[in-house]
Structures are given as C-alpha cells and as structure tokens.
Specification:
mainly alpha, two-stranded antiparallel ribbon
C-alpha cells in the first residue's frame, strides 16, 4: 500500500521501454531516459531489479503502479458491497414482511445472473475501464453482504437492548444505526477483508481475459497475461507478478482470519 501511494516518485515511468533489454533477467543493467537539471533528456544507467517484460519495461515499476489498480479494486469493491449490501440487508432483517421479500428477491436475481456475462455486458456497453470494473464487481458482491447483514440483523433485532430502546421510545432510525449497526458491522468488516483477497484475484483473472483495465495501464493480471507468450524462455515476466499477487492475497487472508478469531474470542467472553 505504501508503494502504491508513492508510485509517482519511482523511476522509470511504467511505460518507458528499453528495446535493448526485452524480457531481461532480474539484475540486468540497462539505460533509461531522465531529465537533467537543464531540462534536457539524457540516458542514465538503471538496474532492473526484477527484470523487464516483453517490451523492455521495468517489472518492479509496473508492479508498484499496478498495485494502485489491484488495491483500488480490492478495497473499493468490498466497500460498495459493505455500504449498499449492508443497508439493504439491515432493512430487510429489521422490517421483514414485503420489503424483505422484494429485497431478497432482487438479491437472488443478481446471484443467479452469471457474473462473467455481467462483466461482458458492462465492458461492451461502457467500455473497459477501472471505474466500470469496480462498478460491475461491486454489483456482484452486494447480495453476499446483504445476506450477512440480514442474518445478523435478524439475530440482534430480538435482543434485550433493542427491546429496551423501543420501550424508551427510540425510533427505527435510531435503533438501526445506534443499536444494531455497531453489532452488525463487525462480521461485515471481517467478511469484507476476506473478500479483498478474492477481488484482487478477480481483477487479475479479468485482466488476464482482457475484461479488466485496458493497456497500457499496468495491472498485475495484465502483466501475467503479457508474459504468457514467453513463459518458456522468460518465466519471470509472468511469475514475478503472480508471486506478488499471491503474497498480497495471503496477507489479506491472514488479516481477515486474525480479526475473525479476535471477534470470536470477544463473542465467547460475552
């Protein structure tokens, strides 16, 4: 995340090509174009720490810039599901009746609709972009969050503290946001952190299939796809971004597991 935030300070530019060092191995020394103090473009020796891709672009720089896209998708998509799915799920679990039937029917329709078809439709009509990718994946994950929110709302809406708030004259808005939400948000945040890892992988798979962020914008999935043609001669072009994606996904999974264990421990103590 620190690298993604500071990506603008890294050299060289993610699209700068070195045609003399295509698919260069890690540790190769090449030359890049930089601006000197007088504003003139000069060639400067540069160490390709992780090598270059098939077009001579520095893999490490593209990984850092690609982290912006992968983390944007991984964090924004669960945030959309958390907010919209959480609101819909709490309303369905709190009010029940016809509202619950309508909301859950809509969620079932989204779940039944093939996600890849939705991605193809959005890409075809709106064009491939980071914003459209986040919107499409956000729509897909809303039903899962709504189910989590609804199940927990059904549980907590019958607790004594909610009944006490009703007896004291609290309105529905206060009960939902002051009494139920603080208890429902914990399992939803844990689920969102677990989903971050899946969204990063989903972005990689969609970029590999050509449904993600269009080139030349660097993304981890796109970098893996670009290296498939030279997998036999230069496996590092694909394997290095794949390994970075693996470490990132593993990290978010471990964070989610730790928070879930902490929440379970507190629940047992209560």
């Amino acid at each position: 995340m620190v690298c993604a935030i500071s990506a603008g300070f890294w050299l060289p530019e993610p699209d700068q090509m070195d045609w003399a060092n295509q698919s260069a191995l890690p540790g190769t020394v090449g030359e890049i174009s930089v601006m000197n103090s007088e504003g003139a473009e000069v060639q400067k020796p540069f160490l390709y720490l992780l090598g270059t891709d098939t077009m001579g672009r520095d893999i490490m720089t593209r990984l850092i810039f690609g982290a912006r896209i992968s983390l944007a998708v991984g964090l924004a998509v669960p945030a959309i599901g958390l907010v919209l799915g959480g609101i819909l799920g709490m309303l369905a679990g709190f009010y029940r009746g016809r509202l619950e039937t309508v909301i859950m029917a809509a969620m079932d329709i989204i779940l039944a609709f093939p996600g890849i078809v939705l991605m193809l439709a959005i890409t075809f009509y709106l064009g491939p972009s980071l914003e459209n990718l986040i919107i499409a994946l956000g729509i897909i994950v809303i039903p899962a969050f709504s189910r989590v929110a609804r199940a927990n709302t059904l549980n907590f809406s019958q607790r004594e503290f909610v009944q006490a708030a009703r007896m004291l004259g609290a309105n529905d808005v206060y009960i939902i946001f002051a009494e139920i939400l603080p208890n429902v948000i914990i399992p939803m945040v844990i689920y969102a952190l677990m989903l971050v890892a899946y969204m990063i992988m989903a972005e990689g798979i969609l970029s590999f299939l050509g449904l993600g962020v269009p080139p030349p914008a660097p993304s981890w999935g796109g970098m893996i796809a670009e290296g498939k043609e030279v997998l036999g001669e230069s496996p590092h072009v694909s394997m290095i971004p794949a390994f970075v994606m693996f470490l990132t996904v593993l990290s978010f999974n471990l964070i989610g597991d730790s928070l879930r264990n902490l929440a379970d421990t507190k629940e047992r103590q209560l």
